[in-house]
Specification:
Layout (H helix, E strand, L loop, with lengths): L15 H31 L2 H13 L8 H11 L20
Length: 100
């Protein structure tokens, strides 16, 4: 047997150039996924979805008699809940000035 250096000859990694291209594609897809996740979290936060869902779950927990199907109950609670007012985050704070 001849002594040859160990090479990765698997079909997924035929050479270094393909490896770099694959890594670049992976990194690009990963960055897109992170951005999408961040935008989705901001969307949920802007509409206070998680807060409202938690309030609906707490109301369900506090029921003296649990409904047979909790989904319509939760939907009704969320539909009828109103988000609390939030301070705008992308506007500068307004200052009030006293005359005198």
């Amino acid at each position: 047997m001849s002594s040859t250096p160990n090479r990765d000859t698997s079909p997924g990694r035929p050479n270094a150039e393909a490896s770099t291209l694959g890594d670049d594609l992976f990194n690009e897809a990963y960055e897109k996924a992170l951005l999408r996740k961040q935008l989705f979290k901001e969307y949920l936060s802007r509409h206070q979805v998680l807060e409202r869902f938690n309030l609906a779950l707490e109301a369900l927990f506090d029921c003296s008699e649990l409904p047979e199907d909790p989904v319509p109950y939760l939907m009704d609670k969320m539909k009828n809940s109103r988000p609390t007012a939030r301070k705008p985050t992308n506007r500068p704070n307004s200052a009030t000035f006293k005359n005198g």
